[in-house]
Inverse folding.
């Protein structure tokens, strides 16, 4: 099992991050493959409403016209 934690706190190494790390540590001790993504370190653009994602309904993860870190985050969670 893989557990991906998306941490959206702005203050790294504070309570939210420490609690998330402890939860992931517990899951890892039970055999889970764990990872935490700090969203503040990612480049995530705002939707431009281009509707590209609506044109490809066959894909498991819909394509986006933005070139940012979201694809890497989404595909990491899907694996």
């Amino acid at each position: 099992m893989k557990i991906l934690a998306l941490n959206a706190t702005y203050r790294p190494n504070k309570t939210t991050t420490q609690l998330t790390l402890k939860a992931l540590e517990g899951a890892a001790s039970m055999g889970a493959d764990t990872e935490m993504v700090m969203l503040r370190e990612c480049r995530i653009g705002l939707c431009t409403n281009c509707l590209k994602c609506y044109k490809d309904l066959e894909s498991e993860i819909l394509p986006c016209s933005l070139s940012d870190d979201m694809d890497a985050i989404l595909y990491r969670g899907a694996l």
Notes: Strands lie at 2-7, 33-38. The two ends are 10 Å apart (CA to CA).
